[in-house]
Amino acid sequence: MSKKISKYLSLMAFLLLAINGSAQELPYQNSDLSPEERAKDLVGRLTLEEKASLMLDVSQPVPRLGINEFNWWSEALHGYANNDSVTVFPEPIGMAASFNDELVHEVFSAVSDEARAKYHHALRQGLGNKRFLSLSVWTPNINIFRDPRWGRGQETYGEDPYLMSRMGVAVVKGLQGPEDAKYKKLLACAKHYAVHSGPEWSRHELNVTAVDQRDLWETYLPAFKSLVQDANVRQVMCAYQRFEDEPCCGSTQLLKRILRDDWGFDGVVVSDCGAITDFYTTHNVSSDEKHAAAKAVLAGTDVECVWANYAYSKLPEAVEQGLITEAEIDEHVQRVLAERFSLGEMDDPSEVKWAQIPLSVITSKKHKDLALESARQSMTLLQNENNILPLQKNIGKIGVIGPNAKDKEMLWGNYNGTPIETVSIYEGIASIIPEENIVYDKGCDLVENKVTLSYFDKISAEGKKGMKATYWANPNYEGEPVISKQITAPMKLTTAGNHEFASGVPLTDFSAKYETVYKADKTEELVFKFGATGHFELLVNGESVAEYDNWRTLPTREVLQVEKGKTYDIEIKYAQLNDWQANIEFNFGEEVPVDYSALLEKLADVETVIFVGGLSTKLEGEEMPVNYPGFKGGDRTNIELPAVQRNCLKALKDAGKKVIFVNCSGSAIALTPETETSDAILQAWYGGELGGQAVAETLFGDVNPSGKLPVTFYRNSDQLPNFEDYSMDNRTYRFMDDALFPFGYGLSYTTFEIGKGTLDKSNMKTDSNVTLSIPVTNTGDREGTEIVQVYVHKKNDSEGPIKTLKGFKRVNLKPGETKEVRFNLPAEAFEFYNREARKMQVTPGVYEIFYGNSSATANLQKTELNIQ
């Protein structure tokens, strides 16, 4: 049968269905039925090939049944990611520092509003159902941040299972909307299940074995259980690595026995992108695609995400070969369709109230205010010698230096969208004090102990300075170019904000070549620095120096030895790929050592210096090709502040400056030397689009800092066990008590006194609860917020955690004011793993209840409870 006839018959079938449907509605078209009932009816009308296509993350349309294309992969980590002109909130690790799950719920209600508004606007423009522009968002990341070297820990809510659970539940409820609504607002996703937190460099081969059952049930699984049972999360993403010899996406233990049988999860399991491919390429547990597909589906993975070729497209062959039955596939397709029906995605938009959210909510004043408030509450003051902070606004001249002072993109974190406007830390400070009073200098690089002197003014193409850029309106460098032009400055091009690379160049499906010639005027070593989102290849004299396809722009460097008098043809090939925003950066030149003498001379008449440093998502993140000293694949090999910054801080201190260190990072940094070279240390995380404003308001006292550390700040790297060892021994505050800055720690510009707590009973049954009442007083001279924390430990349990968080509350107090804070501790707060019963359980015994304003023993008081 010809394709033309086939298309005609499909069209006629669809028209007949539409005509008949007006007279007699089929069950799957009836929006009064439950999503499960509709899905069950629709599955029976599909061919095997159609069923397989619906299990792909880019699910194919079935026009004859009115099924649209559907993309399962969008992101909403702290805003609607990979989209332009959206609100960008602080990175999750920063939001975790607020210890405010109510605020987090507000944030993600706003995020889901923006997602729905963008999605329906795109549909009306005929541009909907694209990757990163859909109603399924793979958020939140609730893996325990067990090791500060993990580059993706910034995406999580810290190292504590209870804090992670509380925050994760708030995220899911904000994204999915009210439980009693007819339609889900979005489909949230708990990832990456399970026992997953790096390293990035070995995640495709790593086999996590011999995990103690206490660690599994008390540390790695609680947040996933909470999101399933307390938030009704509709998706769970299985992780890349193996767990006890089985890939997580092929583990019946994880996906069937625990997730579905024990916890009752009835939603969709999606694979991390490429995880099924790993079955037969890196884990070597399957021989080919169809065996991998059958294994994953039978274990419980409903949807496959890939970078290239789908294993699940081979499911019909797997059925034919007897590896799996069509009935077994039906179970998974039914789940997939039920979730789509739950969104109203196949119903008339007039029936779906979320489809009516106006475009005006996006980056609205309400959302910007929310972004600023969440950034303010994330500010965590770690040190304040002699109360140097807050600074006086009439301070006079002040230095603002450091590699992150003017870096706006650093504030966006990772897995981010692009805001309309971002306030850098420098700009935030300049909005509070006169800019003429600010002496600015970058001071040093984030990592490199050298500065690159650009040679862009030494290159030429066809007799003209710079690089010749040629653009085509296709990704294959074919046909007549759209335009050719000369680029005369270091390249930094992006389609963000719908900016063209050059006049007439489309925003998608385009390619480019950049060509120039450099004649060496001396024999030396040159460094090439570049990055791109899309396809990138750098060639020198026709030989490929670097080539990759990437979905985000990452800083990469290559070194080339040149000889005096020789010419070097430099060529870059670029192509925009998939639905990813196009970006490209390129510069090259000579590296020279950092010399602080010029900086100090510039700051000669400045007494106080704000140094804005730390890290960046250009250094820490997901599976990155960045291998600067101290970094590997997006992770860190040590947790010390890069030496170039330590040296700069020391030079400032040795020169007699008062130094305020603003540390921007998504993870803990060992700041032992910095406590000596800095008068104050403010942990600012990655604060989102208005993070710079929040930092400035905190430094100058408009905001009284209230953030608390959601992760332990260790003294040095020597305190850390082997990165690939998943035992919790000597990890986090729960299993070690010798931190530089402990979990839950954070200073204020006022002082608080936490009085003696009282229990409403000293004995209780294993299925009861108890109330702890604690008086808290503001003993300082300004209004502030204290975060009261409650920890539990079973007495005489030597192998369990030293203490583990079971409650927290934010208490706002005026000077001299006292409030009584009450914690209702349910039976679950005293639940630990019982080896004899092989499950989590409340068992009789004496329990120590600690309470205070950090996890440090010195900051806690204690009472005891007897459980019978």
Automatic annotation (TrEMBL):
Key word Signal present: yes
Keyword Signal: yes
Any GO molecular function: xylan 1,4-beta-xylosidase activity
Biological processes annotated in GO: arabinan catabolic process; xylan catabolic process
A Pfam family it matches: Glyco_hydro_3
Top-level taxonomic group: Bacteria
Residues in the signal sequence: 1-23
Keywords for this protein: Hydrolase, Signal
Record-linked Gene3D superfamilies: Glycoside hydrolase family 3 C-terminal domain, Glycoside hydrolase, family 3, N-terminal domain, Immunoglobulins
Matches recorded under SMART domains: Fn3_like (SM01217), PA14 (SM00758)
Domain PA14: 462-604
Family: Belongs to the glycosyl hydrolase 3 family.
NCBIfam families linked: xylosidase_Xyl3A (NF041776)
Identification of the protein by name: Glycoside hydrolase family 3 C-terminal domain-containing protein
Species of provenance: Christiangramia oceanisediminis
Phylogenetic lineage: Bacteria, Pseudomonadati, Bacteroidota, Flavobacteriia, Flavobacteriales
